[in-house]
Amino acid sequence: MLDAATYVRITEERQGLKICCPEEIAWRQGFIDDAALEAIAAPLRKSGYGEYLMALLAEGAR
Predict the structure, then answer these.
(1) Is 53 within 8 Å of 41 (Cβ atoms)?
(2) Per-residue model confidence as pLDDT tens digits over 10-41
């Protein structure tokens, strides 16, 4: 289990992407729009996950 967690952490750090981020997947596939992603990310802004979602919006790349 530790090996799997380490692999995920290193992969995310090197690629700058989150592995299995359902909100990102839904946004990129067009299932939710920018406003919905922002509403999901707003309460999480103080966490790394919320910062990641907000950065997606700032980049605007789908």
Answers:
(1) yes
(2) 999 999 889 999 999 999 999 999 999 999 99
